[in-house]
Amino acid sequence: MIAFPSRKETRFQSSVRGRLPLLQSRRPLATHRPGAAALLLMLTSMLFTLASCGGGVPAYPGAEGGKNYFETAVDEYGLAKPTFLYSTNNPVFWSLQANKGATLTDPDLCCVVRIDIPKSGSQTMPDLGGKTYSIESRDHMNTFPGSFYVFNTHASVKKKVEAGVISFAAGSSSTGYVSGSFDVVMTDYDSKLATPPRYHLKGSFGFAIGTFGAAYPTPSEAYLQQGKDTYDQNCAQCHTLGKVDTSGGGGTDLSLRGGELALLYPGSIPAHQNLVLDRYAMQNLRIFLNTN
Question: Is the model's pLDDT at 66 over the cut of 80?
């Protein structure tokens, strides 16, 4: 069995910055009765409501279409691969969402990563084109006026992007097409390790604001089956995996702990029950563990 260190889960108090607006509603916006002022107040209060899963039609659904993309070049954690992308520019906030799901009404639609910028009282957005922002406060560099959230399909705000940069390409428009890149460090406060692990994430994105649809190009789902096969063949006899597998042999529950494999067993798992996994099998395994 993999010997994970044990400790009580790190206590975590969500700050205002760590909470986010609700994009999704069980009914189309048109069926809601409040007037414009009441609606704006209601949506503003949703800034304190968690919305990472649950499906349903977003409050501001936008238009279908556009070759939107969200890709990672460096992923030390093991993120799910987004299959459905959504963006909005509404009176309360501006947002890019990389989701796991098939359609807006998919009941299993869940957020992997989202980038939000709340609107001020004047409902204005900063000019993003050609700008690079720091996630943390740095001298001689503008701090990002929004938040970079990592949910990885789970309802938790304990995966905190606390350092790094996010850049927007020249010509990017908060009301038109926006593209850019990120190079950030995420701290996983969901982890039960004594010191919460940190993971490097680097990638790029491109969104036509106000549109939604399948990620372009749509990623293959083969990695999930490969990760499941690796788990079934090498881990299931001793370990459990949340609600997916409860029949292990008393070993550590590996749910949401895929990222820790690379920290404890870099490159492979030598001398652990005589298992040796190559880096491709390890990556697919940790993504599978992190999404279950």
Answer: no
Residue 273's pLDDT is what?
66
Residues 29 and 169 in one domain: yes
Quote the pTM value.
0.72
User: Could you say which of 189, 214, 239 is where a domain stops?
Assistant: 214
> Residue 62 — pLDDT band, cuts 50, 70, 90?
low
Q: Which helix (H) or strand (E) holds 286?
A: helix 279-290
Q: Which residues form the domain of 148?
A: 16-214
Q: Which residues lie closer than 8 Å to 91 by C-beta, 6 or more apart?
A: 40, 43, 119, 123
Tracing tokens 């850019």 back to the chain, one arrives at: 180
207-236: pLDDT as tens digits: 999 999 999 876 666 777 787 888 888 888
What number of other Cβ atoms are within 10 A of residue 97's Cβ? 28
> Does residue 51 form part of some domain?
yes
Please determine, for residue 162, whether its predicted confidence score (pLDDT) is greater than 50.
yes
Q: Do both 235 and 113 map to the same domain?
A: no
Whole-number Cα distances in Å, 255 to 9, 156, 240, 251: 14, 14, 8, 12
Alpha carbon distance 30, 210 (integer Å)? 17
DSSP letter (8 states) at residue 267? S
- Would you say residue 240 has pLDDT above 80? yes
CATH number of the domain within which 284 lies: 1.10.760
